[in-house]
Amino acid sequence: MADVREKIAEVDPVWTRIKAEAEDAVRDEPLLGGLVHSSLLHHATLERALAFRISMKLASGEMSEQILREIADEAYAADDRLGIAARADLVAVYERDPACHRFLQPMLFFKGYQAVQAYRLGHWLWTQGRRDLAYFIQMRVSEVFGVDIHPNARIGKGIMIDHAHSIVIGETAVVGDNVSMLHSVTLGGTGKEDDDRHPKIADGVLIGAGAKVLGNIKIGYCSRIAAGSVVLEEVPPMKTVAGVPARIVGEAGCSQPSVMMDHLLSGSDHLPEG
Question: The whole model's pTM is what?
Answer without folding.
Answer: 0.91
